[in-house]
Amino acid sequence: MGKRKVPQAALELAGQAARDVRRLEAEAARALHGDGDTAAHRAKLTQKCLVLEALPEEAGPALAASGADGAATFAAGLEDFARRAGLALSLESIFFMGALLYPEDYKAGEPNDLERFLDRFEAA
Length: 124
Fold this sequence. Notes:
Elements: E1 4-6, H1 8-34, H2 38-64, H3 71-91, H4 94-99, H5 113-119, E2 121-123
Parallel strand pairs: 1-2
Helix pairs in contact: 1-2, 2-3
């Protein structure tokens, strides 16, 4: 099965979010392990969740106007990432925020769940 097509704008937006998530995670790790700053660590992971939570709304206009075969699947996937991020925020669980996007058997250097999701799509 080939990759599904989605609007370029939505794919770019989600790709930027994936890069922002990686950057925020790295900053969170430096804050905690390098500086011992638990407040900055929590703030960076909170920002990570906010980036994920905003994905459906930000990509919505590009997806709503699209007839691409994968637009609805892409939108549903973004909604799921947003829902899980919102749950992590509502629980105020630093563990959940940190583990979000990573399966139990994750190995450093592998793509996270968002990156693997994006790999299933290409620009329409």
